Amino acid sequence: MQNDEDFFGRQLPLRGAPTNGAVGQHALRTVGERRQCQRCGQWLAVTDRLANGDWYCRQCLQLGRLTSQHELYTIPEPNRFVRVKSGGLTWTGQLSAQQNVAAQAVLRHVKTRTDHLLWAVTGAGKTEIVYPALAWALAQGWRVAWTSPRVDVCLELAPRLRQAFGGVAQALLYGGQADPYAYCPLTICTTHQLLRFKAAFDLIVVDEVDAFPLATSPMLQRAITNAQKPQGCHLLLTATPGNDLQQQVRRRQLAVTYVPLRYHGHLLPQIDLRLAWRWREGLLRNRLPSALIHQLRGYLAKHQRFLLFVPHVVDLPVIGQALQLAGIQGGVTVHAADPDRPAKVQAMRDETIPFLITTTILERGVTFPNIAVVILGGDDPVFSTAVLVQIAGRVGRSADFPSGQVTCYCHSHTKRVRLARGMIAHLNLQGRRQGGRP
Amino acid sequence: MRACVWCGRQLQTTLTLAQIWQFTPIAQATVCDTCRQRFTAITSQHCPSCGRQQVDETVCLDCQRWSGDRLTNHAVYVYDSAMKAYMQQYKFQGDYALRVLMQAPLAAALQRETYDVLVPIPVDQLTWRTRGFNQVTGWLQNQPFQQALLVRATHKERPQSAKDRADRLRTPQPFTLAPNAGQLLRGQRVLLLDDVYTTGRTLRHAADQIYLGGAKAVTSLTLAR
């Protein structure tokens, strides 16, 4: 633990001072009557106290408890890396013309160290668009973090980046990782892990910036600014920026690059809205809307595989049973806490099951070629505008099957569904100007 | 609006007219119903010796192996995945605020026991400094208890929870009596209180010491079995 490299740009909680001259500060800072955790920046409640009189922070407990006995030790980031001329880029793929334009824009902003939003539609190839900028940053000897609120995204991304940047040492950090921490120029981590860093990174790439829990958590948003060097910058990636990001873009506080077309040049499928009046009451009698049954039977007859999204975990068994009764069989249900989730998603990928009934966990990060999407109860508050656009974005991602159907059954018209359709229409309008085809 | 101490979800409290008309302070819930219902309570069908949940009320195999050395233990909840998750966050991560989850169920369980003196299993000095609390006394609200036992401050090379059954059964006696234990315990019915009954080794070591202190009878209560 006394290794210098472990302290570079990090905040390590220790009870006694280390021997290597790392600078320490109290983990819990007292301001008047209140106490603030120096790792996560949250204020302690008056009840957050142990029996022996020490205070402790409950907000970042998952990273190991900080008490008033602890000090956080850090050594300022020295960027002690071997510089690689090419930035370690070993990727040999080709960017499309549109991707290349976006990639140059991103590179320009990274070079001038400005915060930047890359607003690229689902399936635009966001990751590859960032490669030139990332290679340039690594060639400068910058320390870079690629972070996402979703651990699934990090786990999927790590092997891709390891392949694309074969010449750069990389570390993957997430809760429950098996490997120990390593000091590397490129760190791939969940946003929670950024809490362990302080003024460490010259560039932070935030993937899926609007995803839960980052969008609603001031603690994690602070973690990003805290882990970034004062002169550093961040690059936000998303297909569906939230209201506050869109507002910052409108006010010209945040530079933005649009990629309104998918890599294969086809437009996004629009959400087809159908009313299913009082479908919940029907479900109590094990009945689903007849239009839905008709549509799903049609899919099964055509061997068209589909995803059925439902609002809540408790709806899964009920709707599964109702589908069984209607003669639509062979699918499985999957939700966030499902222990067999990876196996079921893999089975869907291997085309061994005809459909999945799922909650919003499959909204992003999954790709199935040639898939149709059906949303039941799209007016439920869990389906926010961003979630609906992401769900619609599951369709037509493959170049071989660039189109597909997205159907949304609602009890009534809601603003969220209308805005989601509006966002897709707006992006498609921009896409058409760039020569997109339906 | 308050949030549940465990899952952090907002608590939906419904205020009834009856509560308003009573003019008494309204009890603030701290835990949501979903979290409360995650645990499995042990029913009357349990092992009469260790309190393990079973399908009948015969002495279980583990207790038969303890031949002769009988101890009557009652437990409140089954030690299942939910309880393990709770213990992980409360005891090992040290989230002291989670103690409120168990205060009410434990108070109800203590009501059902007959005893004169309540003796919680102590923690050693090192644990007290690093963890900052005794996980057992955290669950007690106003119930009087006596620290009649002291635990030897031997450095444990491995925590109890990292050992297997055979290792745990070989654990030497870790407890000694507190200086004033004699007058506290003489002729009294003592109830020991611990967090989890796994092999019964710890509780039997403690019970041996309490008997040495002159107690008339020793029974035990644990949160989980």
Automatic annotation (TrEMBL), chain A:
Molecular functions (GO terms): helicase activity
SMART domains: DEXDc, HELICc
Domain Helicase C-terminal: 295-438
UniProt keyword annotations, A-Z: ATP-binding, DNA-binding, Helicase, Hydrolase, Nucleotide-binding
UniProt-listed CDD domains: SF2_C
PROSITE patterns attached to this UniProt entry: HELICASE_ATP_BIND_1, HELICASE_CTER
InterPro entries, per database record: DEAD/DEAH_box_helicase_dom, Helicase_ATP-bd, Helicase_C-like, P-loop_NTPase
One Pfam family in the UniProt entry: Helicase_C
Domain Helicase ATP-binding, residue spans: 107-259
Name of this chain's protein: DEAD/DEAH box helicase
Species the sequence originates in: Levilactobacillus lanxiensis
Taxonomic lineage of the native organism: Bacteria, Bacillati, Bacillota, Bacilli, Lactobacillales
UniProtKB/TrEMBL annotation, chain B:
Taxonomic superkingdom: Bacteria
Listed InterPro entries: ComF/GntX_DNA_util-trans (IPR051910), PRTase-like (IPR029057), PRTase_dom (IPR000836)
Domain Phosphoribosyltransferase: 171-224
CDD domains: PRTases_typeI
Family to which the UniProt record says this protein belongs: Belongs to the ComF/GntX family.
Name of the molecule in the record: ComF family protein
